[in-house]
Each structure stands twice: as C-alpha cells, then as structure tokens.
Amino acid sequence: MERLDLAAIEAERERLRKEYLAPERPASSARGVHHVALLSADVERTVRFYQGVLEFPLTEMIDNRDYKGSTHFFFDVGNGNLLAFFDFPGLDVGPYAEVLGGLHHLAISVDPTTWERLRDRLADAGVDYQEESGTSLYFRDPDGARVELLAELLGEMYGHSVR
After folding, report:
1. What CA–CA distances, in Å, run from 161 to 145, 152, 156, 158?
2. In which band, very low, low, confident or very high, does the pLDDT at 16 lie, cut at 50, 70 and 90?
3. Residue 28: its pLDDT value, please?
4. Residue 137: exposure state from Cβ atoms within 10 A (0-12, 13-18, ≥19)
C-alpha cells in the first residue's frame, strides 16, 4: 500500500473548504432524499431482515415500471425517508460488490436506546457486526450491502454539524 502524505491531504482538504464551503450557504434545490434504492435477491428475506430485525416497517410493494415482474418495495427509515429495494427475477445481477462510484455504506440514524436494542437484535439474529466508538454498528445486509446504524443526531458526525 502506498504511503500517504497526510499533511498534503489535509492541505488539499483545507483548500477545498475555502473554495467551496460558503459562510452563507444558499438553500438547496432539493426537498430531501425520496428514497435510496438497493438490490434484493430475495424479497421475503429482505423484508424479514429490514422489518423483522432492524424494525423498519415495510410501507409498500409495487410493480417496478422499468422491469416487468420486478418488485419495488419500501421501508420507513424515519423522518419521511424511505429505503427501497428492487428484485430482478430472471436476471443474474451477481453478488454485491463495492466499486468506485458504487455504494460504500448506508448510515441510518437511531437514538442511543434503539441502537443498543438493535445491536442485541443483530447479535440474536446471528448477524456479524463491527462496533466503532460506541455509536456506530457496521454490518452487511442479506445481499452484502454495508449498513451502519449510527447513534448520532441527523446532521451531526463526530460531534460536528455537517448540515
């Protein structure tokens, strides 16, 4: 692995902050995240995991308009946000892979009490997880996507506002 020049990286980060982080930021053109869509190899297995283990209620299942026979289904992840999935029966989409430009992980905010309960539910379900800093749990869903449960407020990271 290449040795990193951490001082140069921080200098570049500072340059980018000065160039792009405006003290008076204009309002965003977006209203919010409508949904994030992932792939599912097995609809029922995905529902059992996200609703049964993580306690994200299933809100709807509809036909995928782009691929007949595919199910587009949604889970409530709080604050009006949805996590969606597609299955693609008959297509060999292959296993999940982290690639440049692809999903690294999906971080979902939960309160500290819920975080502890969900950590126990993951353990009870036999899901391997990695705990970091007493506020983050990293694990993989049944199709291999990396998920983080984060006991931080929305818009905060490591005690810093990121809004």
Report:
1. 26, 11, 5, 8
2. very high
3. 86
4. buried
Three-state DSSP class for 117? helix
Q: CA-CA distance, 136 to 107, in Å (whole number)? A: 9
Looking at residue 59, what is its pLDDT? 97
pLDDT of residue 91: 82
By the 8 A CB rule, do 161 and 155 touch?
yes
At residue 103, does pLDDT exceed 90? no
90 alpha carbon, distance to own chain's centre: 26
The pLDDT of 85-89, averaged and rounded, is 91
Q: HEC profile for 118-152? A: HHHHHHHCCCCEEEECCCEEEEECCCCCEEEEECC
Q: Across 4-157, where does the E strand assignment appear? A: 35-39, 58-63, 71-76, 82-86, 106-109, 129-132, 136-140, 146-150, 156-157
- Phi, psi values for residue 22, rounded to 5°: -80, 140
Q: What are phi and psi of 15, to 5 degrees?
A: -60, -45
